[in-house]
Predict the 3D structure of the following.
Amino acid sequence: MGFAGLAVLVLPGDRPGGAPLGWVLLIVAASISWAAGSFYSRRTPLPKEALASTGWQMLFGGAGMVAVGTLAGEVPDVRVDSFSADSLLAFGYLIVFGSLLAFTAYVWLLRNAPISTVATYAFVNPVIAIFLGWAILNEKITTTVVAGAAAIVLSVAAVVRRESAPPPEDEVAYAGAVRRASNRG
C-alpha cells in the first residue's frame, strides 16, 4: 500500500520528464543495495556503538565518492572561493542533522527494532517533503498528492501497529515450549 502511495505521488505529469532510463535504473539499484545493506547489517560484524558504526560507514562512503568524483574529472570544477554562506550553512545542516544525527539513529534502530518498522522511514520522507514544500515554498497540494500521502501514512501505521501488537496466543505457547525444551536439553 505504501509503494502504491509513492507511485501515486510520482504519476506522470508530477515529475521531471526526460530522465534517462540508465540513470533511473541506477537509482533503483541503489535503493535495492540500501535495502540489502540494511537487512544484512544485523548479520554483519559492525562496531557496537551506533556513532562509531556511522563514522566508519561515512568515512568509507565519503572516500568512495571522492574517488569516483576524482576519476570522473570533477576536481577542477570545485571552486571553494565561490561557496556562499547559505550553501555552507546548508552543508553544515546536512552534516549535523542529515548525516550524524539521522544516520546514527537509523543505525541504532537497525540493531534495536524490527527491520519492517525501521524501513518505514523511506515512506515517511516523501510525506514530510510534501509538507515542507507546502509550508516553505508554497507548493500546491492536489487531491492526487493527498491520496498518495494518505496511502503512505496508512501503510506505515499498519506496519507499526502490527509490529507493536502482542504475538498471537499460539506463537506465545510455541515460544514457551521451545524455551522449556532447550532448558531441559
